[in-house]
Structures are given as structure tokens and as C-alpha cells.
Amino acid sequence: MNAQAVIRCIVTDDEPLAVNLLADYVNKTPGFELILKTTNVLDALDAVQQGRADLVFLDIQMPELTGIQFMKIIRGACKIIITTAYPEYALQGYEFDVVDYLLKPVTYERFVAATQKAIARLENKSAVVATNTIKHIFVKADYKIRKIDLNDILYIEALRDYTAIHLLNEKLLSLESLRNYESLLPETQFVRIHKSYIINTSKISFIERSKVIINKEYLPVGETYRKHFFSLIGVDK
């Protein structure tokens, strides 16, 4: 995604006032284009399935289709920013790799902060698709945004509510999902070996039976990922 690209947005909410407010925010934010504002979530779904949107501002509680159902249907076809009055949906939303979670009433300052996250996500995704040669990623951890060189990553582990990035001398906790890291990181260097682990293949010390050893840690190779992993490293198993 180059600097000139425009991010195409949809706003959908069953409350007209909420739709109009967010649509106004989109219209006055440089680099963002409003392609649809609607109280009918099915219209938004149709637009996403036609490939017309990069980002959707999505309410959770809507009569025809809930936000959770919407995300299950589109299966990552575009980025999502959740907008809702109910904070209890936050963790469930992050299971779908949402960009951010905006609690109503949404201020413009908070809206802009969310859009900056969306830009970063879309730029990272585009860079991987275009070149697959990224050298670093930016990770929000410990109330900071850290620049992490890919060569410093040993492996990434999915925990209950977080993802842990294991470096040689430290561990960073992030709210990003393992699935998102899997899509960002170059396949020539990183591979998923288990539902809970992505490893840096250059950091493998040795492989013993169905375990990969990295920095003295024994990491399991899941049956689902076994064939692809051994094929990638050129070992017939």
C-alpha cells in the first residue's frame, strides 16, 4: 500500500446518528474514502463481498446480523474497527483480529487513533503481498510501539488473551492475534508449526521427533502443520 493509496471505508450501525457521526469523521480524514454508510448491515456485507472496502466500522448489536456473525462470514476479507456501547465484547472482537475497538460516544481524537492503526495494518499486509521482504514489524507492547527486527524473533506464542513474542533476552506481550502475525511475516523465514506457535526457522537448534528446539525450548509440531513444516525445511517425514 503506497502513500497515495486511499482506504475505502464502510460505516454500518443500526443507529442513524451513529452512522452519520462516523461517516462525517471518515469524510474529514485525509486518505480515507467513504464508499457506503448504512443502517442495513446486509448492504455492508454485500459491498465487502464485492471487494469494494478495505475497512469497515462495524457495530456489534444489529438486528439482521450481529457484528460477530458479520466477521465470521467475511473471514478477513477486509479490516474491521468495532464500534459499540458495550465494552464486554472487546475480547471476543479481538478473536477476529479487529484493528481497534471504539466505545460510543466516539470522539474524533479516538477515531483518528484507530485509523492510524488501520493504516499500519494495511501497509504491513500490502508490503508482505508485494515483496515478502520486510525486515521488521512494529508491535504495541508495554504501552509502547516497538520496532522489532525479524531476525531477533525466536518464536511467537499464542496465550489465552495475548500473543507472546519471544526474543533472545525478553518476551513481549501483544494483543495481536497469531493469525495476523502469520499473514504479516515472510513465509521464507517464519512458519506455523502448531495452533499456538509460529517459529523463525533460522533459529532452530535441532528437531527431535515431533518437537522443534529453539533456544533450549521444546516446541510441539501439530499434526495439522506437520507436512507443510517438514516440506518447507526440505525434510521428508
TrEMBL record:
Residues 8-119 form the Response regulatory domain. Keywords: DNA-binding, Phosphoprotein. GO terms for molecular function: DNA binding. The modification 4-aspartylphosphate is found at residue 59. Residues 137-235 form the HTH LytTR-type domain. InterPro entries: CheY-like_superfamily (IPR011006), LytR-like (IPR046947), LytTR_DNA-bd_dom (IPR007492), Sig_transdc_resp-reg_receiver (IPR001789). Coiled coil: none annotated. Signal peptide: none annotated. This is LytTR family DNA-binding domain-containing protein. It comes from Danxiaibacter flavus.
